[in-house]
Amino acid sequence: MKNRPLGLCAVFLLTLTALGCGSELLGLSASDSTDELGQQLGDIMASIDEMGGSSSGSYPLLMRPHARLEREFDFRSSLDQLLISSSQAATCQVGSSYSGCSGNTITRTFNGCTYGSIRASGTVTLTWGGGAALCIGAGAGSTITRSPNFTLANRRGATLSIQKSGSYGQRITDLGSSNYRFESDGIRRTYTNSSNNTTLDFSTETTAAMNISGGARSGRVLGGGTIKVTNHLSGVFCSISPTSVTWGNNCNCATSGSFSGNCSDGKTLSANVIGCGSLRLTFDNETYDVDLDRCFGI
């Protein structure tokens, strides 16, 4: 088994706190495409939870800028896990803000806030539809759409951009009776180093809608459907399906369940969720442990 304990965001912070090995900030594991393949699955799980607005992760409810949402920015969890001091995290905590509900939309804006030497800019937008009013779902047919468009940058010019690559991004639709459908027409994560070379470029989209049962975090189950993960540098894509991917009370991502799939180059993969933010990924007959950079204990 090969350990891949560091997601991209964790690597940023290890370097920031002088725990790294001298590699370029934002670059220590950016070439590790296997790790990034696992990160795509973490992003799907965290995004599903992020579209829930209560402390129990239930949805579709009114979104408020309360404490739980303050933790939902993609690299905030790594700050918590790595015990970065509150003074280092403070500028991004107070230097970004949620708007009020306007036109069934709430936007979090990162106004160049920083922690350590990393600067964040851009937005994450949540939009209600399908009969919703005042950012409150109206039952069956209601939707919540998440559209990220933000960038992390260091002082040397390396960047990680995360944005929608389709028309809407990610969407949950209420089917009634605590059942939901998750769809995505594209989320893309692109890493560019300080020499302006793109060394990592992945996107995810659903080619068949995924099913969610349970309106609250505890006991929520993701199953069925297909995620297409594309490595835009190699042209290889993998089609991946979840089985009994299940949330507990104390993590924004699932804590059990599995994924399996096949890739366009003939390789196969399987992944077991082995705990909060932990994925055991077997790809091309090699097994890796991946820490998911968007998943954290609550």
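(the above was protein one; protein two follows)
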Amino acid sequence: MLTKDISEKQFEEDAMEIYEAFKEKEGSEHIATPLSICAVLKLAAKSENVLEIGAGIGTLSYAILAHSRAALTTYEDNFFCIEQLKKNLQMFDGRFKLLTSYMQMPSSRHFDLVIVDGANGQNHDGGYKRFIHDLFSGVYPKIVYIEGVRRPQRRMIRETLRGRYALWVKKILYRGEYKGGTLYYCYRAPWIIREIKNGWNEIREHPRLEKYFSKIKPPKALPLLSDRR
């Protein structure tokens, strides 16, 4: 976790620098956008333990390791991506754990941040159809960031976490429009576990939840990139 304050402009500049570097690398056709990189930089700066699902060639992995002190566990099962990932992260050897099979579960169960950028079980995305369900049945996240739209994963995460968490949902906006990227802030308390029956919608429907969230003041939508080009 970084203790120093970082300005909005610095986050943006760092995100663009990472994007420009990785877009020139082999296998960069599907790397994260500057918007997503900036979001991850902000989240990782306040995290100590991060889980990444679908590392690809390492764009977001690099952002986490280069700009935070967080411990990183990351999944990637594609042989080409694994080779590129190791090459692109060689300067961080010993600072991250790479899981090359989605049949493995992470050794830790508690994460400040979980990033979902793959593992829907379809071609070129890794994992298997029920992986997200199996994983989130056994881990305890504080924040989940879903890179891109990924509707199947969003739905499965909500279904899996319901009953254990109240989820405060925020979409990442650029110039007022949704361009992909969703944040789930996961709140947990004994009475929430007892009373939540219908998942994330209950936040706006349950009077006690309304009162609870009004006290803890969940974060507003993050202003991740300005309208400047």
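Reviewer note on protein two: Residues 197-206, 218-229 have pLDDT under 50 and may be disordered.
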